[in-house]
Predict the 3D structure of the following.
Amino acid sequence: MGGNTTERARFDVCVVGAGFAGTVMAERAASMGLRVLVLERRDHIAGNAFDHRDEHGVLVHRYGPHIFHTNAPRVSDYLSRFTDWRPYEHRVLAEVDGQFVPMPINRTTVNRLYGLTFATDAEVQRFFDEVAEPCAAVATSRDAVVAKVGSELYELLFRGYTRKQWGLDPSQLDASVCARLPVRTSADDRYFTDAFQQMPAAGYTAMFERMLDHPLIEVRTGTAHAGESERGRVALLVWTGPIDEYFGRRLGALPYRSLRFRLETRATAPGVLLQPVGQINYPEAHLDYTRTTEFRHLTGEPGGHTTIAYEYPCADGDPYYPIPRPENRALYERYRALAAAQRGVVFVGRLARYQYLNMDQVVAQALHAARASFGSRDASRRRRGAPVAGGARVAGDGGVRVPGGGGARVAGDG
Ligand code: FAD
Ligand code: UDP
């Protein structure tokens, strides 16, 4: 278990998990002069964003294709300290009845599926107004879709995909799940419209290596932390694993959805692409995978091989997706109450907050939690009118104080 708890006491902060949440917290703590120990159960850093070269030299993402996009300049500015970028706009086609249509639903989707020739937003909006089935209150993912585009498009493009992905009907999931996809009247066929859409030029793992490359950070991979039972004497513990695991699942297990990935590699002429776009979705029930993604679209790598990832949703396996529905949120809230009562433990990230978050949202959450826990050099400078000499200190009571006052607070929920 990565050394005993006494040995760990020589660190100011122990971070559990080396994904985005843990790595941002570790980097920020070290930047404030704190000594940080990072424990990661897997044999590598970068969490679910981990990428590596396969046996053919193709850069692949082990835990499913990850596309970076954000509207938050503070997130892209922060990460830009550790990586260069490669512009990439993600596009997705869904295969229905043997034809390929853009997702999210846009003007082209409607024209192709219905043999129409709409040329303006207004025409498409009139079409949506005619087919939409307004709901008094949009509560579920079914409501969220039929209220905008009606039952037929819902059945064609959402119901089957969602039942495969989640093992649940859209009517059993919060509206927020399917509402991740907008509905467009324009012909814009990009999956995301965020201002910043770029991939780390040398990959995610290389970016994480640079974030963790600090003399005050020690990383131990292949090392699990047992949670509350192993709390120990380190002044501040940052937990980015599943929140129910921290508490030994004593209130019951929070449900997560998992995936199995199958990678198919083919020899091609350099730069040749097998898919017309980065991702193809398969909403039809007769296929047991949900989507295929060709990494070469994302990475732009030439090479003599191209690799496509198939995603097969499943109940058992790594906890990839919190499942947004009322009963799960209620159980999470009970764990959150336990977390709030923990002294000197900060819960950050997708698993620790049981929230369906994208990478940029996790970075934003971690930057916020880091400011609350460690303060920030810029803020200290402004307060003191001079550079911080000794960096941050961890107080014996489990709180973290920044010389010059103010900054530090350790909260159960960041
Ligand atoms: P994680 O990346 O899960 O990191 C947590 C780490 O903690 C893991 O490495 C785990 O091994 C470690 N850990 C857990 N418990 C312990 C323990 N007890 N002891 C030691 N270590 C422990 N987001 C996007 O923005 N764009 C995308 O295209 C995108 N695609 C995705 C595709 C898939 C298939 C999935 C599952 C997610 C995708 N995401 C995407 C979301 C993205 O993966 C997350 O937002 C982000 O990785 C969450 O970071 P995290 O640090 O909270 O969690
Ligand atoms: N979805 C769907 N059909 C699609 C794409 C998405 O029904 O073609 C639904 C499905 O429930 C999915 C959710 O919308 O889980 C969110 O999609 P997103 O692409 O954001 O999922 P992620 O990339 O997080 O797996």
Summary: Residues 115 and 136 are 31 Å apart (CA to CA). Residues 5-51+72-86+199-254+322-401 form a domain with the Rossmann fold fold (CATH 3.40.50.720). Residues 16-22, 39-42, 47-49, 63-64, 66-67, 224-225, 240-241, 245, 259, 320, 349-351, 357-360, 362 surround flavin-adenine dinucleotide (ligand 1) (CB under 6 Å). Residues 383-414 have pLDDT under 50 and may be disordered.
